[in-house]
Known about the structure:
Elements: H1 18-41, H2 45-64, H3 66-79, H4 82-97, H5 103-127, H6 149-167, H7 172-195, H8 201-225
Helix pairs in contact: 1-8, 3-7, 4-5, 4-6, 5-6, 5-8, 6-7, 6-8, 7-8
Amino acid sequence: MRTPHAPAPHAPPGPRTPARSAAAPAALLAAASTLLLALVAAEWRPLLDLDAGISRTTHRWAVAEDGLTQAARVLTDWVWDPWTMRLLCAVAVVVLLRRPAARWTAGWLVVVVAVATAVQQGLKAALGRDRPVWADPVDTAHYAAFPSGHAMTATVVLGLLLWVLRRHGPGPDLWRTALAVAAVSVAGVGLTRVWLGVHWPTDVLGGWLLGALTVVAAVAAHRRLCPAAPDGSDRARPPSPSPEPPTSDDPPRRPR
């Protein structure tokens, strides 16, 4: 009597490749950035009215709350200033350069931050969006408004540094602290720019979106060009060969 063959088990799906895992968030961020950019360039009236309404309200608060406004000015001009962010990135680059295996990542950081700055300045020049104008300003700023350089630079630098830190296996306390500091800084710098009346809310939103898109694209490029090793270094290790299954049906003998 013939025994029916058992159906072959289905192979489990393989792990998602870095390029495929980054494609969805990159596409979403690119679509949102492009839509916002188009609406700002077209001066879409509902968007302008929303910007103006939020800005008028926050400006009244900034004039009335002098203590908060002074604190916002210190934070935005010193703690979260784009040059402070670039200096922080430079420190990380120096630390990485001391490790031969991490020198590729150090160069990658420099290139990405430089490209992000060039894109930001190019968009400002191309759009030429005016900043808010107030009869009683609490702060001043120069150059065009969109996108916010403070918001975009903080997003790019802190996002990249978080990824580099995660890559080198930080302890849970250090990782939670770094994540909290980065999140507060990225959100805080955007809020201070609106509070001080030097940016429209959509300028800040544009800086966040473009900064996040830059981080996702840069990380995907790093993974493709320099795969991560299990120990967090920049050198990929070849996969260790899996042990061959025993060919005998007899159980292995225990050593005496």
